[in-house]
Amino acid sequence: MIKDVMLRLDGTSADDARLAAAAQIAAMFDGHITGLFFNIVRDELEGGSADQTAKSKEAARQAGDATEAILFQRLTRLQHSANLRRFDVTGDLDMAKTALLMARTADTFIALRPNGRSNEPHDLIDNLLFGTGRHLFLVPDDWTGFKPLDNAIVAWNGSRESARAIAEALPLLQVAKKVGVLVVEGEQSRADPLKANDAVQHLRHHGIDAVKYRSVGEEDDTADILVAECRSLGANVLVMGSYGHSGLHELLPGSTTTRILRIAPLPLLIAH
Q1: pLDDT at residue number 46
Q2: Is residue 253 predicted with pLDDT exceeding 70?
């Protein structure tokens, strides 16, 4: 069960998509929502005197007070069990380190896809995905929560990362009406007709009536194939592993993970 739903809130319009996803998942599992508000209070003002720095820090704290009050009201209006935690931090790196410790006690952490347009700091997403041992639920910038999360596709390639993704996604897959396990095969790997059969059987042992889908394409086209298949099958959530051993911002520009994050029109449940 997904009982602890966590997300970062910053008081901007980007909160709309995050809150919509949090409310949707909390409603599905009768979960609790924890909002994290990171108020940036710089230790030093570049080129400024000690007095100017002190005034700047006080102004930042006062601005944080106003934003905190607004965020508290927004969480209250969700009509779900919820709380807001505020942290005055010195910058993005401090934010990422603090969020990492908090997210390790959550079942899911909701964020926007780091597609170059959203305002999710790279350090934050990197730390959470590669450091928490839990999954991230990444939504498009314009997510409203109106579409159900009941038709899931699991991207399967037999890797450790895809196994982790399935394990993390089990609560969501168990309440979905449709679950497909999708294998994207290259011309050289088509000789393995049993690939993903064990993954399908594993899900069925958990009471999930999963079916297997196969698609053929070159490795460089895997991301586009996954998105096209999700559209064709009417999927509204994609479960996948994040591949590589470095941060998302260090992944090769042409990697499947990087491209999926940039183009996916549906929510991603992603784990490493």
Answers
A1: 64
A2: no
Per-residue exposure over 151-178, b if at least 16 CB sit within 10 Å of its own CB, e if not: bbbbbbbeeebbbbbbebbbbbbeebeb
> What DSSP line would sit under 9-59, residue for residue?
E-SSTTHHHHHHHHHHHHHHHT-EEEEEEEEE--SS-TT--HHHHHHHHHH
pLDDT at 218 over 90: no
Rounded distance between C-alpha atoms, residue 146 and residue 27, angstroms: 12
pTM of the model: 0.91
Q: Is the pLDDT of residue 183 over 90?
A: yes
Please, is 88 exposed, middle or buried when counting C-beta atoms within 10 Å of its C-beta (0-12, 13-18, 19+)? middle
Residue 247 has a pLDDT of 53
Order of strands, edge to edge, in the sheet holding 32-40? 82-89, 32-40, 4-9, 108-112, 136-139, 268-271, 237-241, 151-155, 178-185, 210-216
Distances in Å between the alpha carbon of 130 and those of 21, 47, 137, 270, 271? 22, 36, 14, 11, 8
